[in-house]
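Annex B. Sample input.
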Amino acid sequence: MPLPSLVLNCRDDALFTLAEMQRAEEMLRQVYHKAGAADRLAVSYYAGGHRFDRDMQREAFAWFDRWLREGTAP
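Annex B, continued. Sample output.
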């Protein structure tokens, strides 16, 4: 606890407001910090609306490589 987590946000996502995404990020950061696992949380914000484009996919796949392929997952 807690397991590695990656959160990718789009600043203009019609499904979630930026303020609520940032509020959720702060809550997650506090939990991960208290657990001594701040390095296991990554949160990124991308311009535009709801999507999962190539830049986001690159970040996600690099995250998977770090935590799954390299054997660093708990």
